[in-house]
């Protein structure tokens, strides 16, 4: 549940991302790999990724209202955004994280 | 009935719902350890039924439950069911119930690739483990279809979910919206095939009725009809006819109707706890008889509940005062309770439910329903019949005497009620108009009275400021005469009787006179005879004198002849 990357928390420019997975499934591994690639490309040095395995911490599922797995939650900046799936569709993932405007082709 | 017999044979294990009536229909409850689908249109009570299943399970059967709400928050749910007496917070505090809101907000979710619903499984698993739940409700799972785009994933995940629920051995209730032409909008019945219950909330003539039907129940027999159900202050209740048994006690006690001659016609009144039907065309005095019966009950110190569906209580009071019956004292001391609503105000089920509630709360000994005819305007004749059947049975089981007033339409006093409830009725008093000689009068007769040697005669029924009076009608060669015809006939009869009396007196006088004349005649004849007798005596006397004279003459002559010898001979 760590996987901190280069930036310190509390900085308003730093993106706090949380990835909820359930065990080391191919989908979750895929999701994490895809996420790291997207972040390196678009948010280099301005992000933290927290991976939460719900099988180890089931109570957090209720707290963050997780239904689908994997779910990526953008805690910061506001507002909270959610992207579900293994992030293989990069375009949709970028739209979901508001890293590109929704209407961009 | 089917359900009851089914429960006697070994069938699949069942989890009692604790919902009044539902366990009768299902033969003991929902299939234990399997999912049950409850479907129906919006507002038909799916959530409530599911919630009651959980609450009853937690309180009555010691089976903790988990409620997963996809549409409402836990706070909203708790507030909604508090009016039914369910305290979810208390149950949650005692670890009997978990209510969890699953928020799926389409606008906040972006799908980017493959996913599954493992998060839901984890949350459900955690909730089940927290309280050791035996029962699970998912309300309404279909909301998920609005939250996610990838339907193929959803469907395979739902299939997995139901299998998972079965593996966990929990008795689950899944609610679903009714679709167009299908049981559920998303075809959930495809996954849940053990037990499907359909709830219906239909409008008929602008009045709503709720119904429940078990579409299928694998591995067991079940009631197949549509059963009306109610949602009231005490929760959900299904009203199967078949759960009512005919095993009520029959009382031998007679209760007076308050009308002396009617009591006499009925052999001393009606039996306690029976049902009385007063039927008749408009204005035949049905309500008046009912009010008399109510007043008689109050006079005996018994509580009486009076449903007045056409008149307000003050109107009833005023009208009854006009026939010399003052109900006000009973109203004041609380023995008499009026309930006045328009029948169309509620659906039939709601009526029945509120009536049950009133009757349970007040525990009256006599219940008057005036009139039952209006119920037909709320539902169909069949529904009204079913409702009255349940009401009659309910009252009988409580040993409460029931008085139903039924208006018969049509000019002819038919011996049928629109509700066809004659078979439910123990004593049927028919009031009818007798139109004769340019006036209408009221006639009353007892059509039937079970267990009673009742009078077979028609009585004239007179309403006056002195109250109700029953009079013998004149039955003559011209038929039944009532009212002024009867009075005229009675006058005629009186006159005829007077004439007869006079004739007899005259005859008597005549005979008297004749006798006297005869006696006079006898006296005259006797006098005549006496005269003749005395004449005879005179003649005899004269004759004797003549004889004596002749004798003396002869002696004198002999002496003068000196015939001594002859003298001796003749001497």
Automatic annotation (TrEMBL), chain A:
Sorted alphabetically, which Gene3D superfamilies does this protein's record hold?
A: Glutaredoxin
Q: Which residues form the signal peptide?
A: none
- The KaiB domain, residue ranges: 18-99
InterPro entries with a match to the protein in the record:
KaiB-like, KaiB_domain, Thioredoxin-like_sf
Which residues, by range, are in coiled-coil regions? none
Q: Which Pfam families match?
A: KaiB
- Put simply, this protein is called Circadian clock KaiB family protein
TrEMBL record, chain B:
Q: Which Pfam families match?
A: ATPase
Q: Which UniProt keywords apply?
A: Coiled coil, Hydrolase, Kinase, Phosphoprotein, Repeat, Transferase
> What segment(s) does the record annotate as region Disordered?
1-20, 551-571
Enzyme class comes to transferase
GO MF terms held by the record: protein serine/threonine kinase activity
- Coiled-coil region list: 488-542
Q: Which residues form the KaiC domain?
A: 13-252, 253-484
Keyword Phosphoprotein on entry: yes
Domain of life according to the entry: Bacteria
The cross-references to InterPro entries, in alphabetical order and at most eight, read: AAA+_ATPase, Circadian_clock_KaiC-rel, KaiC, KaiC-like_dom, KaiC_dom, KaiC_N, P-loop_NTPase
- UniProt entry tagged with the keyword Phosphoprotein: yes
Q: What is its EC number?
A: 2.7.11.1
User: Gene3D superfamilies under this entry?
Assistant: P-loop containing nucleotide triphosphate hydrolases
Q: Which PANTHER family match?
A: CIRCADIAN CLOCK OSCILLATOR PROTEIN KAIC 1, PTHR42926
* Protein's recorded name: non-specific serine/threonine protein kinase
Species this chain originates from: Nannocystis pusilla
